[in-house]
Specification:
33% of the residues are buried. 19% of the residues lie in helices and 28% in strands. It has a ten-stranded parallel β-sheet, with no helix packed on it. It has a nine-stranded parallel β-sheet with strand order 10-13-16-19-24-27-30-33-36, with no helix packed on it. Strands 8-11-14-17-20-25 form a six-stranded parallel β-sheet, with no helix packed on it. It is of the alpha/beta class and 369 residues long. The termini are far apart.
Length: 369
């Protein structure tokens, strides 16, 4: 392992950080960095970042010892003679400052884990397959036939159902419920209170009453998926509900049975997706989006906050509104709405005027005028 990754919580030489993120230093290569912060909150020996010229000039007056900047700010950070260097600021030039800052921040604030081992109050069924270096907290229950991969962390109160599989290095936070026959990949993070594999909402009406349809499918979650707090992901009615690798959920997301969500999507707070919806790769569903059942959302489509998706959306569009439609069309509608009362008034006036003209024409044609 890279030595810089082994020193969690320690000061780090800037030259090591530059190598870690693939950056180039303008200034003092030998300074040590002790933490990270925003331009407003950074303290002495911290590192911060600036995305553009305006923020860079603001950062020149902050306490941080180093500023991460994009390579293309050559007109400002053109070498040791620039104003920032004269002010004592060292610069770390990278392709993507926000990403570099996130990677460096992860070194100073690694994920919280519990020590490897099994708490004496945990209940582990005899047929469970446990990997190496697992960490199982207080009152965790792991049911028959489950498989827990190497380096998995199960925080207190977690339930892992019969036959479920958790991939290597996945972190499952407190009070998460993973029902039976659920598959979760490697390097995932499941936040507190989430329920994965609960029954889909399936009922059939007969004689005026609703009867439950057994939900016999499962849930399959890929690698490097993050699920926020208090989300619910229903198992398939038949077949699986699928969340593909790299996708990230915010808190309070509901995914119904047999939904398929593609790779590297962002699903943001309070989204509800009805049954048998397919969401393509690299999609973004912003806060409080609702999606009706049996629809498709194409690859790289963005659905704006509070939109209601009532029909299939093609790839690579930006949709908004209710019902969801191309964003520029929705903007034109929203701009027109405040003018609607005046437009209605005008239509009434024009209608009255046309009616008067029509009556006069009738009189002319009848020889009465």
């Amino acid at each position: 392992m890279n030595k810089i990754l082994e020193l969690d919580g320690k000061n780090r030489r800037l030259s090591d950080l530059a190598e870690f993120v693939g950056g180039r230093i303008v200034g003092n290569k030998d300074i040590f960095i002790s933490g990270v912060g925003s331009i407003e909150t950074a303290e002495r020996d911290d590192i911060t970042f600036a995305l553009n010229e305006k923020l860079l000039l603001e950062a020149a007056d902050c306490a941080a010892a180093c500023i991460i900047v994009p390579h293309n700010l050559e007109q400002i950070v053109s070498g040791n003679g620039d104003g920032l260097s004269r002010a004592g600021k060292t610069l770390l030039k990278v392709d993507n400052p926000r990403f570099a800052f996130a990677r460096i921040a992860s070194l100073f604030s690694p994920p919280h884990r519990i020590a490897p081992g099994i708490h004496p109050t945990a209940v582990i069924a005899p047929s469970v397959a446990l990997g190496r270096e697992v960490a199982i907290g207080a009152r965790v229950v792991v049911d028959e036939g489950a498989q827990i991969g190497d380096g998995v962390t199960l925080f207190p109160g977690v339930f892992i159902g019969r036959g479920s599989r958790i991939g290597a290095s996945t972190i499952v936070h407190a009070n998460v419920t993973v029902e039976h026959e659920v598959v979760i990949g490697s390097h995932c993070i499941i936040h507190a209170g989430t329920v994965i594999g609960s029954d889909g909402f399936g009922f059939v009406e007969h004689g005026g009453k609703h009867y439950k349809v057994p939900q016999i499918g499962g849930v399959v979650i890929g690698d490097n998926v993050e699920i926020g707090a208090n989300c619910t992901i229903d198992r398939g009615a038949s077949g699986n509900t699928i969340i593909k690798s790299g996708t990230k959920f915010d808190n309070l997301i509901h995914i119904a049975h047999n939904v398929v969500i593609g790779h590297d999507c962002l699903i943001i707070a309070q989204v509800g997706i009805s049954g048998s919806v397919t969401v393509g790769d690299h999609c973004i569903l912003a806060g409080q989006v609702g999606v009706a059942g049996h629809l498709e959302i194409g690859d790289q489509t963005v659905v704006a906050a509070k939109a209601g998706v009532t029909k299939t959306l093609p790839p690579r569009i930006h949709a908004s509104g209710f019902p969801a439609k191309p964003h520029l069309e929705e903007k034109r509608i929203m701009i027109s709405l405040p003018k609607l009362p005046e437009m209605v008034k005008k239509v009434v006036e024009l209608t009255t005027a046309i009616q008067r003209l029509a009556r006069r024409l009738d009189k002319i044609e009848g020889g009465k005028l």
